[in-house]
Amino acid sequence: xxxxxxxxxxxxxxxxxxxxxxxxxxxxxxxxxxxxxxxxxxxxxxxxxxxxxxxxxxxxxxxxxxxxxxxxxxxxxxxxxxxxxxxxxxxxxxxxxxxxxxxxxxxxxxxxxxxxxxxxxxxxxxxxxxxxxxxxxxxxxxxxxxxxxxxxxxxxxxxxxxxxxxxxxxxxxx
Amino acid sequence: xxxxxxxxxxxxxxxxxxxxxxxxxxxxxxxxxxxxxxxxxxxxxxxxxxxxxxxxxxxxxxxxxxxxxxxxxxxxxxxxxxxxxxxxxxxxxxxxxxxxxxxxxxxxxxxxxxxxxxxxxxxxxxxxxxxxxxxxxxxxxxxxxxxxxxxxxxxxxxxxxxxxxxxxxxxxxxxxxxxxxxxxxxxxxxxxxxxxxxxxxxxxxxxxxxxxxxxxxxxxxxxxxxxxxxxxxxxxxxxxxxxxxxxxxxxxxxxxxxxxxxxxxxxxxxxxxxxxxxxxxxxxxxxxxxxxxxxxxxxxxxxxxxxxxxxxxxxxxxxxxxxxxxxxxxxxxxxxxxxxxxxxxxxxxxxxxxxxxxxxxxxxxxxxxxxxxxxxxxxxxxxxxxxxxxxxxxxxxxxxxxxxxxxxxxxxxxxxxxxxxxxxxxxxxxxxxxxxxxxxxxxxxxxxxxxxxxxxxxxxxxxxxxxxxxxxxxxxxxxxxxxxxxxxxxxxxxxxxxxxxxxxxxxxxxxxxxxxxxxxxxxxxxxxxxxxxxxxxxxxxxxxxxxxxxxxxxxxxxxxxxxxxxxxxxxxxxxxxxxxxxxxxxxxxxxxxxxxxxxxxxxxxxxxxxxxxxxxxxxxxxxxxxxxxxxxxxxxxxxxxx
Lengths: 174, 642
Fold this sequence. Notes:
The complex is a heterodimer. By secondary structure, chain A is of the alpha+beta class.
């Protein structure tokens, strides 16, 4: 790929964005993330089978503010930089993934991640690798599950434009 | 011709779904799509809102909280949720029963002159069953005593409620007493459930479910009472020929849809309608065409042959035709959205009880004291609306099916008596024993938007009929099957296995019908599940066995209402295998799930079968029937036991 093509692709890459003011704290994103990691991707079947799937999104409450946290897929990912074994790596699609076979459970990635978006598996680090998505046109399970639009899947430009509009509208209202 | 669509198996409904889409009228299917994805905590029963410290939710996968703030586990939260659904269902059915008891009381006291004792024989039979003297007494004296006796069943009593104590088999009553499952009174058990599911009360999931079972038996008591009093006041159903589906609407008539549950109003509307024909014709109509929606539709269908317009999930579609001049509702299963659809389509929505008021509707507060006057007022509103609608185009789908209905227990026994007057149940029992009837299945319950409308009913009924299972149906289950031809005797040849076909033909011919009984026997509304219980009890008593020994099963393959949870639970408590075709909000607790689907057997002999795939569900019901046949020493097809 030429640099220009790469840059264009990066601009079209969608990310999971958060509108914390819309989060009701229902934890549906957490549940959907977990369900996407069950055998049949089915809540009822997994519950009946007693499965214990991992999830990589957390809804926390800080004072009055409720907000989900999920891996930001940083361009210069501190988790990848901090990983001493190369377990944490950048996949071909630019998604940061942990290869649990190489992970030694040192938790340097947890130290390095500014968002606390690394989960603890059975002695290994786990994180969102967008593996819930089935095909390129799919949207992540957590975004799909969000009933209020607190989680959205957009390009950086789209989300930034939305923020500019919101700021303009609110400043005019004042 | 529009084919079945994703929404429904009924092409008539699909035609209206398409019209609603073109007009931009929002329907139940649109709202369902907008609601997706639905909350997984709610789906699994793991959300608790019983106190103000909550809401709490348990993580079904064990990563997050495993106890509510108070310490309630998933088991407790799920069991409390089931109990409250049962209590709500029991409140609905018994509220319906209480309404009828009060109506009969007012009739007996002389303050409800528009009602009458239509079935004296049933009044006397029910009174005698309850130990009320009948010799040398007037009907009104007997009716007053019976109404008071009925109202006694609601409070806390020293003895079990009368509509259980005098109707269930001795063996079942002994078992229920021994296991502590006999209710003290209908309202008592509903209140008991609300008490024990309050913050910081019962935290024993098994004990909670037992309380739910008692409450569910209260639901049966009220349902049975409602059936009996309805029969006394409005007549016990006898076989009747009518039609079902949206094609029963008439473009040039005043179309009045009665919707809801209780015959207290709908039967009076049907009775006074002939008086109003003149006014309807003066407004330019060919007459008044009363049609039914949901269970009040079933009530007047069973007694008067009033055609069934539609049921349950597709209630909005009746209005989308543009041909319904008034939809008159009492209570339960009335979608609030009807007000908006009515406004869009020019229908007058008329509410009649304080229990069910809907903004946007015209409210005519119905009282038994002035029943006929209110009915005339309602019909007049419909006629006025027709005058506005007259000449405007309507879209009435052509589709309708012939229906032979009206199979009360009395009607079934009468039909069987033509084969054996001394012992009417003997032919039925002989055919069961011989295997020409492999077993009996009751189809009950609602439609559910999560299932393509009627798909589960049709798929399962087709399979079971081929396997010679005698089918009876009530409520919107009957509605589903009737609009697909299952109650047209002409379809018996195609639908039924050879054994069942021969039985239905023999009964039909002995009764001079010139053909078989329909493949599915319509037993009435959802309170009339009591009729199915009464039939099962009669067979059990005749055989000297308990209900859990009979090859009898029940299914609510597209259940929606809390009333369906109550019905399913009383059927399990009576000892029957009960299929539910949608996932119950219990799977968040493996313990409660196992209790309802497995260990309940040890308590009552009954259990739930939760299976969302209709083909697999039919196989499971056949297996349950065969298991019971084998235990009775009866032949099992193929001779293979599981």
